[in-house]
UniProtKB/TrEMBL annotation:
The record marks 292 as: Increases basicity of active site His. It comes from Polaromonas jejuensis. It is an enzyme of class 4 (lyase). The record marks 339 as: Transition state stabilizer. Substrate binds at residues 23, 49, 339. SUPFAM superfamilies: Enolase C-terminal domain-like, Enolase N-terminal domain-like. Keywords: Lyase, Magnesium, Metal-binding. This is L-rhamnonate dehydratase. The keyword Lyase applies.
Length: 395
């Protein structure tokens, strides 16, 4: 490995307006239309998730330049906080290391931030650095990232779509549609009825052979989620997603014991590291783990999470994170399909998930994506030069 380049610089930037912080959208977007959240108990914060700050972080862009001039980069959710962590703390473990030192850099970043990290923004930031390192190493080797992960186990990716219009998603060739839940316990029986009516209406539109899922975004309690699952079974709900707050491992285990036979329980997009997912697995919390590779620790950690889940016979269907999850999913037997977030405001057309930040970002065609669409070096995408990068903590 002596001929491998070393890392000269790491730089951290912020971007606003869609992209990796995909909740950072303009008005009138389905993704901010009265979606149930843990804040829905407060009427002032019920209509819009932006009202309580779902988009306060913005996008973190991590750029890593090697001694041979190759540059790897990534985008994730992290904004200025992430920039501070990269420039003021993590840079010391990255600059001067070899481009192949990915495991060692991850271990040093994690252990050095253990006293204030472990989850949330710190692991988002470590994830961003890790993704940029995998992009860099793959570009140095002139291979796609999936080739460094063992290569594709199938010829194409198959997608379900997340958005307000599963009926349109079916017409576009997706295998299923995941809708946001709109009403939480604070809206009582009226809200509960609206939730079920929405599912019933969509089932009538898509027919019986199309997957329908509900994404509850941490908004419920065990009692409400159990009743919702039981009422939803009449409409063949495929899985109930993230019904409870991430720390309620005990609640998830109870919910999974309560849901109707055949209905799946999923969670994990706001969980982090192998230790968090070990808890979900060993406490019997869910059937499908949904780590976000930009939030759980990056590719380096997702490999560990996925292998642990595989040993437990559980599926890993990463939370939608564009090419960063596609390159992983195509290499894993226990990741048989992928998520595609419909980022068009009315969920009525396929647009690149991290638009406008990435150029050459592949999108599903007829709900599928050929492995060959992922064959460019690295993650195969470029930063859009029209997006104004801001470096808040230059060194
Ligand atoms: C649609 C959900 O409310 C979230 O916005 C979504 O990003 C996430 O939970 C998902 O599973 O895609
Ligand atoms: Mg979700």
């Amino acid at each position: 490995m002596s001929n491998m380049p070393t890392i000269k610089h790491v730089r951290a930037f912020t971007l606003r307006g869609g992209g990796a912080d995909y909740h950072d959208q303009g008005g009138g977007h389905w993704i901010d239309d009265h979606i149930a959240t843990p804040m829905s108990k407060y009427p002032a914060y019920r209509q819009s998730r932006q009202s309580f700050g779902i988009n306060v972080l913005g996008t973190l862009v991590v750029e890593i330049e090697a001694s041979d001039g190759t540059v790897g980069f990534s985008v994730t959710t992290g904004g200025e906080l992430g920039c501070w962590i990269v420039e003021k703390h993590l840079a010391r473990f990255i600059e001067g290391a070899k481009v192949t030192d990915i495991e060692k850099i991850w271990d040093q970043m994690y252990n050095a931030t253990l006293y204030y990290g472990r989850k949330g923004i710190v692991i988002n930031t470590i994830s961003g650095v890790d993704l940029a390192l995998w992009d860099l190493l793959a570009k140095v080797r002139k291979e796609p990232v999936h080739a460094l992960l063992g290569g594709p186990v199938r010829d194409e990716l198959t997608f379900y779509a997340t958005g307000a219009r599963p009926d349109l998603a079916k017409q576009m060739g997706f295998i299923g549609g995941k809708m946001p839940l709109h009403h939480g316990p604070a809206e009582r029986e009226d809200g509960f009825k609206k939730n079920i009516d929405m599912l019933a209406d969509m089932r009538s539109r898509v027919g019986d052979d199309f997957w329908l899922m509900l994404d509850c975004w941490m908004s419920l309690d065990v009692e409400y989620a159990t009743r919702l699952a039981q009422a939803a079974s009449e409409y063949k709900l495929k899985w109930i997603e993230e019904a409870l707050p991430p720390d309620d491992y005990w609640g998830y285990a109870e919910l999974r014991r309560n849901v109707p036979r055949g209905m799946l329980v999923s969670t994990g997009e706001h969980e982090a590291t192998r230790w968090g997912f070990r808890l979900l697995l060993e406490m019997g919390c869910c059937d499908i783990l949904q780590p976000d590779v930009g939030w759980c620790g990056g590719i380096t950690e997702l490999i560990k999470i996925s292998n642990l889940a595989d040993a437990h016979g559980k599926l890993v269907v990463p939370h939608g994170s564009s090419v960063y999850s596609y390159h992983f999913v195509i290499t894993r037997h226990n990741s048989p399909f992928a998520e595609f977030l419909m980022m068009a405001p009315k969920a009525d057309e396929v647009v690149p998930m991290f638009h406008p930040q990435l150029l050459d970002e592949p999108v599903p065609v007829n709900g599928r994506m050929k492995a060959s669409a992922l064959d460019a070096p690295g993650f195969g995408v470029r930063l859009n030069p029209e997006c104004a990068l801001h470096r808040p903590f230059p060194r």
